[in-house]
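> forwarded from #structure-qc
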């Protein structure tokens, strides 16, 4: 039986493969059904490998690459870090953030508001007239203009993961589990995920919702009372989502959902960057607000400092030759970072409050009890953000953080992979017995 990989699609694509899966030993696992709103099917797009036991990854292979695609002047397609670096050379030939458009039809009345936000927040031009589905315009240095579908761009990233995994393992990998945010719960998004898998050379075995995958990675179903509830909060690099899930007859269903496709860790980075742009102006007399190259270097340094402050009280923002011979080397404390982003952190809490209110409305009264809170995404590792979420629930709810938030969805898809292989193996043995 061909082994599969786990792919989690966020601001970056994550790929994991466990040692146990590589040995192709017999697998047992938990049936993880796709999370659904009542009466609806709900997709998600992620593919992951199977760890030896729940919560223990024992990973022999793991890869994470940014969701960037670029086109060099010689016609070469660049993916991941290479593509992001090329953006500094020719920003019109590099794109990112296209996950938000997967399966979307911006000409539909229900998606016009989203379409307007796309125009306001994404720097590249989007053509909505070609084949109904949105196509992204890229322009190389020689002036060549290309229109590329979102599925094709996404498949380029997935194919890069597939190629890297096969080179490492020494054999073909043909199957994957995909995960998508719960917001992508329509058949168009689900179909786009399967189509992306086929373009990349994968059999997309299943499409899961990220909240379901994360909850099952933590084994929430083993502790949750019947019809108990869990809040799943996802704050990634560029998107944020909060949902309330309930467990009914062993399956997760969604009681509420709040999704912001243009809010996340990049907003925190921007606040720090703006702070240091002002500092450079006042201290060195240089205005780098219109200098794209300098801003990119500063933004990268600020993001690095932000991550450091998740586990340290102090960090330094260091950029050599920022502009006109100016070397930047300035301290940034966790307290300063929290002050700069306080209102944005409260925006995350507001997301949680809205989704909890939706869940209470479902019950038509206030009997809703939240049993657990699961965190997804690298931005949820920020200590102040965790503190505010914990305080929202009166300090009585421990946040499920045993598994790293930026890996938990991938591991949840791995668990589902185990179950699929177990079912297929059981079916194969049953057929052999009958014959």
């Amino acid at each position: 039986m061909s082994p599969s990989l786990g792919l989690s699609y966020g601001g970056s694509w994550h790929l994991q493969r466990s040692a146990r899966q590589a040995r192709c030993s017999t697998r047992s696992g938990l049936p993880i059904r796709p999370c659904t709103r009542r009466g609806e099917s709900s997709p998600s797009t992620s593919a992951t490998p199977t760890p030896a036991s729940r919560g223990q990854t024992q990973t022999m292979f793991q890869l994470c690459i940014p969701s960037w695609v670029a086109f060099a002047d010689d016609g070469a397609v660049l993916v991941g870090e290479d593509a992001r670096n090329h953006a500094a050379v020719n920003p019109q030939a590099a794109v990112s953030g296209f996950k938000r458009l997967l399966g979307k039809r911006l000409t539909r009345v229900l998606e016009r508001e989203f379409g307007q936000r796309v125009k306001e927040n994404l720097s590249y031009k989007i053509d909505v007239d070609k084949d109904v589905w949105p196509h992204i315009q890229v322009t190389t240095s020689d002036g060549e203009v290309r229109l590329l579908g979102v599925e094709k761009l996404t498949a380029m990233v997935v194919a890069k993961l597939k190629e890297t995994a096969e080179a490492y393992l020494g054999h073909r990998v043909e199957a994957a589990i995909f995960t998508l945010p719960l917001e992508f719960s329509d058949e168009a998004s689900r179909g786009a995920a399967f189509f992306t898998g086929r373009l990349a050379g994968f059999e997309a075995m299943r499409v899961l919702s990220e909240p379901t995958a994360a909850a099952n990675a933590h084994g929430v179903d083993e502790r949750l009372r019947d019809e108990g509830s869990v809040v799943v909060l996802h704050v990634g690099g560029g998107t944020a989502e909060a949902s309330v899930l309930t467990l009914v007859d062993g399956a997760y269903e969604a009681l509420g959902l709040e999704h912001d496709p243009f809010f996340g860790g990049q907003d925190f980075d921007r606040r720090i960057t703006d702070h240091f742009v002002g500092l450079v102006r006042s201290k060195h007399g240089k205005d780098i607000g219109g200098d794209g190259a300098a801003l990119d270097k500063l933004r990268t340094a600020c993001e690095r400092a932000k991550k450091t402050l998740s586990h340290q009280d102090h960090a330094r923002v260091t950029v050599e030759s920022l502009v006109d011979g100016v070397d930047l080397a300035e301290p940034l404390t966790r307290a300063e970072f929290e002050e700069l982003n306080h209102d944005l952190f409260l925006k995350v809490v507001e997301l949680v409050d809205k989704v909890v209110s939706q869940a209470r409305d479902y019950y038509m009264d206030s009997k809703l009890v939240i049993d657990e809170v699961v965190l997804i995404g690298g931005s949820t590792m920020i200590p102040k953000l965790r503190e505010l979420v914990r305080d929202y629930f009166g300090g009585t709810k421990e946040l499920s953080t045993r598994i790293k938030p930026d890996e938990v969805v991938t591991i949840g898809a791995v668990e589902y992979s185990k179950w699929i292989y177990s079912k297929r193996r059981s079916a194969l043995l049953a057929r052999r017995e009958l014959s």
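QC bot note: The two ends are 20 Å apart (CA to CA). The CA atoms of residues 420 and 426 lie 10 Å apart.
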